[in-house]
């Protein structure tokens, strides 16, 4: 099978029962996405598939042949960080760092959802134009758990990156 990850096509010969997370980590060396709970409850394994956030531990790799898959390694580069990565550094949006790749990928995906006017349970206006308040960010990021409880800094980082990304758009 072939998977297109971070813009590069990879050919794999793996068991059809292999999760997307395990294919990326164990067979392709993309170890940024973490295996936290392996039950889709923590968000440490969050990847973008065709721009949409998914828990990669819950989906089989074979289901994503032909899809555009983005891992944390595809979000930015060491010499040119994504604005979300810069914001996490600036606002100390991490402590132990285990959840950070999933948090960043999820935040990037979440901002795409906001841009596309996807409502959330916290949205005042479900027909679009989401106000990206702290409550809205917390609701939209609720699938990503930080065991160190860096949530206030994560929210600050997302608010900052969102503003910066709007300025450069």
TrEMBL record:
<protein>
    <submittedName>
        <fullName>2Fe-2S iron-sulfur cluster binding domain-containing protein</fullName>
    </submittedName>
</protein>
<dbReference type="InterPro" id="IPR002888">
    <property type="entry name" value="2Fe-2S-bd"/>
</dbReference>
<dbReference type="Pfam" id="PF01799">
    <property type="entry name" value="Fer2_2"/>
</dbReference>
<dbReference type="InterPro" id="IPR036010">
    <property type="entry name" value="2Fe-2S_ferredoxin-like_sf"/>
</dbReference>
<dbReference type="InterPro" id="IPR036884">
    <property type="entry name" value="2Fe-2S-bd_dom_sf"/>
</dbReference>
<keyword id="KW-0408">Iron</keyword>
<dbReference type="InterPro" id="IPR006058">
    <property type="entry name" value="2Fe2S_fd_BS"/>
</dbReference>
<dbReference type="InterPro" id="IPR052914">
    <property type="entry name" value="Aldehyde_Oxdr_Iron-Sulfur"/>
</dbReference>
<feature type="domain" description="2Fe-2S ferredoxin-type">
    <location>
        <begin position="1"/>
        <end position="75"/>
    </location>
</feature>
<dbReference type="InterPro" id="IPR001041">
    <property type="entry name" value="2Fe-2S_ferredoxin-type"/>
</dbReference>
<keyword id="KW-0479">Metal-binding</keyword>
<dbReference type="Pfam" id="PF00111">
    <property type="entry name" value="Fer2"/>
</dbReference>
<dbReference type="InterPro" id="IPR012675">
    <property type="entry name" value="Beta-grasp_dom_sf"/>
</dbReference>
<keyword id="KW-0560">Oxidoreductase</keyword>
């Amino acid at each position: 099978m072939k998977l297109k990850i971070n813009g590069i096509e990879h050919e794999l010969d793996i068991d059809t029962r292999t999760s997307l997370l395990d294919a990326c980590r164990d067979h392709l060396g993309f170890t940024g996405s973490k295996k936290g709970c392996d039950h889709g409850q923590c968000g440490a394994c969050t990847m973008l598939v065709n721009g949409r956030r998914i828990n990669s531990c819950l989906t089989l790799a074979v289901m994503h042949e032909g899809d555009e898959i983005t891992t944390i390694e595809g979000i930015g580069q060491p010499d040119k960080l994504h604005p979300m990565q810069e914001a996490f550094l600036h606002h100390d949006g991490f402590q132990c760092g285990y959840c950070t790749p999933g948090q960043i990928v999820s935040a990037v995906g979440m901002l795409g959802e906001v841009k596309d006017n996807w409502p959330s349970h916290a949205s005042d206006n479900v027909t679009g134009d989401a106000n990206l308040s702290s409550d809205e960010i917390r609701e939209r990021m609720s699938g990503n758990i930080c065991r160190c409880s860096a949530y206030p800094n994560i929210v600050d980082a997302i608010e900052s990156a969102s503003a910066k990304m709007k300025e450069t758009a």
